[in-house]
Amino acid sequence: MLDYKSQVRELIGQYREKIWSLLPGPYRNRVGKELKELEELIMEARAPRIAIVGRRGAGKSSLINAIFNAEVAAVGAVKSTTGRGRWYEYAGEQGKLDILDTRGLGEGSGPAEESTASSALKEIAAAVSSKCPDAVLFLCKAKEVDARIDEDLNNLGEILKLIEKTHGYRAPVVGVVTQVDELDPVDVLPPYEDEIKLRNIQEAREQLWKKLVPLAGEGAVVIPTSAYMRFEEGGRLAADRRWNIDKLVEYLTEKLPRSAQLELARISRVKSVQRKLARTITAAAVALAGAAGSQPIPVADMPVITGIQAGMIIGIGYVSGRRLDGKGVKEFMSALGLNVGAAFVLREIARALVKLFPGAGNFISGTVAAGATWAIGQAATAYFVEERKLKEVKKIYRQKRKQAKRNLPEEAFIS
Ligand SMILES: Nc1nc2c(ncn2[C@@H]2O[C@H](COP(=O)(O)OP(=O)(O)OP(=O)(O)O)[C@@H](O)[C@H]2O)c(=O)[nH]1
Ligand SMILES: [Mg+2]
Hints:
The protein is an alpha/beta fold. The chain has two domains: 4-45 and 270-412, no CATH class; 49-255, Rossmann fold, CATH 3.40.50. The protein has 14 helices and eight strands. Bound molecules: guanosine-5'-triphosphate and magnesium ion (MG). Magnesium ion (MG) binds at residues 60-61, 81-82, 101.
């Protein structure tokens, strides 16, 4: 089976030259930008590389599990369980994360796993130069934000310097207050509404923020979290005290290079992130279809637009955690009552054309192509991301078609 990248590459890529050659100069820039965005987002998709820095037991492994919704990293209750500062590839059903799950900095007893290098920092340095992290998370237990973490901050500073020196990249830093469930009152469970709880969380957050400012500036961002989950044998979730993990994922996605955003959206299944990426994909496809349609394209080139739409559907499906192939796209489009291939676009277009340019039966309008593409993007988002029922999705599609005929909303163009 072709993987999704090959699918999209086939569907969009083969039309690229064609679209390009059809466009007059002024359109090329805009379309070039959208194409580049789509390519980075979908075709160049790769696992995010995240360095996690924090003391032994800060909750690094637990955070990884929390992001994955699954037990993919070993969690240790007493001893330091993460052996060395090297890259680990964590894989869940939906995708992969490359994590520099650093050895607990400043630990007392040696880690349970064997370690060869002389110091944690040296190991981390070696790992950082082998692969450039996209972002660095600095973890600190809620109850230890006022403890002596100066040394940890020094280490963080060293790591950041090293990344910049080796890769010329200023990695974004996110401060993460972990284990906020341990703050008073501990009997309050998430989602937290208790005023005292929230105040204590806020206090911990501010304390860590102050300590991060010298390294990351006033714009330093600190996100408080709880990652506690307990798994039964067989992987079933027996307890879930997670809080704010979605906020962390949202923020992280924003800071990641485009090529790494999709994978995080998939792995974490955070809907708000998936929705946003679906919108970006739709906007790019709308621009492409609009530009392609704005040119007098002979009827024989109609599949260009279908190709763009199919690529969009595959992209949105992928964001949601599925692997769609050409057949899946066809099924989805038919379910909406569309005929895949030239026929559908032709029918829609022919109708509009008769009204607009009587006699110009061979040409399509950019507005029509853009509108149809936008409506299909909305339907695909409703189906794959929001997991709405097909019956509802059909209704949404009809509504959006009508709306698109009147006026395309602003968000159709924002990417
Ligand atoms: N209450 C609570 N406990 C947590 C949370 N996150 C982690 N823990 C517990 O803290 C302990 C250490 O967590 P780990 O995730 O293993 O920490 P780590 O940073 O990976 O530790 P090392 O690999 O040893 O450096 C475990 O007993 C976890 O169950 C949390 O959000 N709340
Ligand atoms: Mg660990």
